[in-house]
TrEMBL record:
InterPro entries: GH, GH_1_N_CS, Glyco_hydro_1, Glyco_hydro_1_AS. This is beta-glucosidase. One of its GO terms (molecular function) is beta-glucosidase activity. The keyword GTP-binding does not apply. It comes from Candolleomyces aberdarensis. It is an enzyme of class 3 (hydrolase).
C-alpha cells in the first residue's frame, strides 16, 4: 500500500519566534533588562552594531501580528515569554510585574480567539540582567535553579489554564557554548581576553549546561506535581540537533560523527531522556565534567514529555582538532572531492543539504548502526559522483535522518525550529526579498523529509514549527541575517509575506487531516481572511484582510526554484551552442 500523503491526526504546525528577537519596547510597562540589552550595545558584539531596542516591534504590533498569523492559517504559534517582563529583576524574592502578566495573558487569549494553540517557551536566552549581576546567572547552581523554578511556577499559575504546551529552555547548547565558551552570545564570557575580561571557557560551559539541565528538571517537577493534575499540559526541553555525518568512511571519521553528536545532542538528551552523561564526554573532560547527585538524577531522568528538536543543517565530521565544544571533531561542508555538501545560507554555520536519496530503509536507533548499514548497502544503491564517499550522499535528507536518530530517545518528536537564512537577503528591497526561492527550496526538502519520516519510516512526529514567523534580531548577527517567512522592513515595520510563507501554508493546508482542520477551525471565535486568498486556491494571489492591510505590498507568486532556473539556463546555453 502506498504511504499516506497526509499528516497524522492532531498534527500541529505553526511558526516560531522568541521574545527578545521580535518584541522591542525594552523599557516599557516595567520590563527589567535582560543580559542581551546591554551586551549588544558593547562595541563589536553585534555585526551591524544594532541592538534589540526596537527589533520587529512586536510588543506594540502584537495584535496585527496575531492577525497575520491567523491569516496564514497556522494551528499554533511558538513564542517565548520574557522573564524580565514578568519578574523584572528575576529572583524568587523579587516582585512580579502585573503588566508583564497582563501582556502575555491578553496575547494568549488573542491566539486562542483565532483558534491558534499557544506553544510557550519559558526561556529563550533572555536572562534577567539582575540575576547576572547578583550572582553570575547560570553559573550559580543553588540560586539560578531556584529562581528559574520560581519563574516557571509564576508562569504556570498565570497562563497554565490556557497554555497546554510548555518548552522549558531553548537550545541550552547556545547558552553554554556561545554564551560562556566562545563568548559571542550574552553574557559573552570566555577565556579569550580579547573578547571578554572574565570567563573560563574550559570549565564554565560544562557548569552552565549542568545547571540549566537541573533548572529545567526542577521546573518540570513543579509542573508535574502542582499543575499538571489540573492543567493537563505537556512540558519538555528543546535542543539543537544538527546532523553529523562522517567526512569519509574511515573508522576514525565514523567515530568522529558519533563524538560530535555526543557533544551536541547527547550532552543534554542523554541525561534528560536516558539518565546519564555520554561516556565520551567524561573521557574527554575528566573531572571538569560535573555530575548530579542521585536525588538530582532522579528528577533529571525522564524530565521531558517529548523530544523538542531544533534542526537546521548537517556537518561533515573529521576526527581531530582541539575544539572541545565539538567533541574534538572538525566540521566542514566541503566533501573530500572539494564539492559543497549543500547550498550556503547567510549564516556561516548553515547549508541547505538538499533532499537526497531515500534509498536506505532503517529501523534502527543508533548512529553507528546507521553508518554501518549505509556502508554495507551503498554498493547496491545508485551512485552520485565518483570521487567522494558515495554512501554519504545516500544518507537521505538531514531532517529525515535526524528524526529517525532521535527515536533512540523513544518519545514523540516536536520539531520546534527549522529554517534558512537566504544569502544577502538584507541587501535587497522587499520586492526582491519576498522572492526567497532558496528558502522555498530548503522547505521543499525538509517538509518532504518530514512527511516521509512520518509515513514511510513511522517516526512519531507531532509538530513542526518553521523558524521564523518574522524577520527579526538574529542575535550577534544583528539584522544582517534574516530567517523570516515574513519580510520585515525595519524602517517602517511593515510586514511582507515571502514566497516561503506561501509555500508552507499551501503545503500544510493540502496535507492536514480534514477532521483536525475542522476541529481547529471550529475553535476560532475571530477570523481573518487568508492573506493569500482562498485557502483552496492559494495560487490566486493576496486578498485584502485586516491583517493584510498592514502589509506593505501584496504577496507575489511563488519564485522559480533555482534548480529549475539553472536547468533552463543550461538548456538555453546548449541550444545556443547547437545553433552556432
Ligand atoms: C537558533 N549555531 O539559534 C535559535 O533558537 C534562534 O533564536 C535563532 O534565531 C535560530 O536558531 C537561527 O539562528 C542558533 O551557531 C544560533 O550553530 C546559532 C547556531 C544554531 C542555532
Amino acid at each position: 500500500m502506498a504511504p499516506s500523503t497526509k499528516l497524522p491526526k492532531d498534527f500541529i504546525w505553526g511558526f516560531a519566534t522568541a521574545s527578545f528577537q521580535i518584541e522591542g519596547s525594552v523599557d516599557v510597562d516595567g520590563r527589567g533588562k535582560s543580559i542581551w540589552d546591554d551586551f549588544l550595545k558593547l562595541p563589536g558584539k553585534s555585526l551591524d552594531g544594532k541592538n534589540g531596542d526596537v527589533a520587529s516591534d512586536s510588543y506594540r504590533l502584537w495584535k496585527e501580528d496575531i492577525a497575520l498569523l491567523a491569516s496564514y492559517g497556522v494551528r499554533s504559534y511558538r513564542f517565548s515569554l520574557a522573564w524580565s517582563r514578568i519578574i523584572p529583576l528575576g529572583g524568587r524574592n523579587d516582585p512580579v510585574n502585573p503588566k508583564g502578566i497582563e501582556f502575555y495573558s491578553k496575547f494568549i487569549d488573542e491566539l486562542l480567539a483565532h483558534g491558534i494553540i499557544p506553544f510557550a517557551t519559558l526561556y529563550h536566552w533572555d536572562l534577567p540582567q539582575g540575576l547576572q549581576d547578583r550572582y553570575g546567572g547560570w553559573l550559580n547552581k543553588e540560586e539560578i535553579t531556584l529562581d528559574y523554578q520560581n519563574y516557571a511556577r509564576v508562569c504556570f499559575e498565570a497562563f497554565g489554564d490556557r497554555v497546554k504546551h510548555w518548552l522549558t529552555i531553548n537550545e541550552p547548547w547556545c547558552c553554554a557554548v556561545l554564551g560562556h565558551g566562545r563568548g559571542v552570545f550574552a553574557p559573552g564570557r570566555s577565556s579569550d581576553r580579547n573578547r571578554s575580561p572574565e570567563g573560563d571557557s574550559s570549565t564554565e560551559p560544562w557548569i552552565v549546561a549542568h545547571n540549566i539541565i537541573l533548572a529545567h528538571a526542577k521546573a518540570v517537577t513543579v509542573y508535574r506535581e502542582q499543575f499538571k493534575p489540573t492543567q493537563n499540559g505537556l512540558i519538555g526541553i528543546t535542543l539543537n540537533g544538527d546532523w553529523a555525518m562522517p567526512y569519509d568512511d574511515s573508522p576514525e571519521n565514523i567515530d568522529a560523527a558519533q563524538h560530535a553528536l555526543d557533544f551536541a545532542i547527547g550532552w543534554y538528551a542523554d541525561p534528560v531522556y536516558l539518565g546519564f552523561y555520554p561516556p565520551y564526554m567524561r573521557e574527554v573532560l575528566g573531572d571538569r565534567m560535573p555530575d548530579f547527585t542521585p536525588e538530582e538524577w532522579s528528577i533529571v531522568k525522564g524530565s521531558s514529555d517529548f523530544y523538542g528538536m531544533n534542526t537546521y543543517t548537517t556537518n561533515l565530521c573529521r576526527a581531530g582538532g582541539d575544539d572541545e565544544f565539538q567533541g574534538l571533531v572538525d566540521y566542514t561542508f566541503t566533501r573530500p572531492d572539494g564539492s559543497q555538501l549543500g547550498h550556503q545560507a547567510q549564516s556561516a554555520w548553515l547549508q541547505d543539504y538538499p533532499d537526497g536519496f531515500r534509498a536506505v530503509r532503517l529501523s534502527i536507533f543508533s548512529l553507528s548502526s546507521i553508518v554501518l548499514t549505509c556502508v554495507c548497502e551503498a554498493p547496491q544503491l545508485p551512485m552520485e559522483g565518483s570521487n567522494h564517499c558515495n554512501y554519504l550522499t545516500i544518507l537521505a535528507t538531514v531532517t529525515d535522518i535526524v528524526l529517525r536518530y532521535l527515536q533512540r530517545y523513544k518519545l514523540p518528536i516536536y520539531v520546534t525550529e527549522n529554517g534558512f537564512s537566504v544569502k544577502n537577503e538584507s541587501d535587497v528591497n522587499a520586492d526582491e526579498a519576498v522572492k526567497d526561492f532558496d528558502r522555498v527550496h530548503y522547505f521543499q526538502g525538509t517538509t518532504k523529509a518530514l512527511l516521509d519520516a512520518i509515513n514511510v519510516d513511522g517516526v512519531d512526529i507531532r509538530a513542526y514549527f518553521p523558524w521564523s514567523f518574522l524577520d527579526n534580531l538574529e542575535w550577534a548577527d544583528g539584522y544582517t541575517t534574516r530567517f523570516g517567512v515574513t519580510y520585515v522592513d525595519f524602517e517602517t515595520q511593515k510586514r511582507y509575506p515571502k514566497d516561503s510563507a506561501r509555500f508552507l501554508i499551501k503545503w500544510f493546508k493540502e496535507r492536514e487531516d480534514p477532521e483536525t482542520a475542522a476541529k481547529w477551525d471550529a475553535k476560532a471565535t475571530k477570523t481573518v481572511p487568508p492573506v493569500f486568498g482562498d485557502r483552496t486556491n492559494l495560487a490566486n494571489g493576496a486578498a485584502s484582510s485586516k491583517a493584510a492591510s498592514k502589509l506593505g505590498s501584496e504577496a507575489v507568486l511563488p519564485a522559480t526554484r533555482w534548480g529549475v532556473r539553472t536547468t533552463f539556463m543550461k538548456f538555453l546555453a546548449a541550444l545556443l551552442a547547437f545553433i552556432r
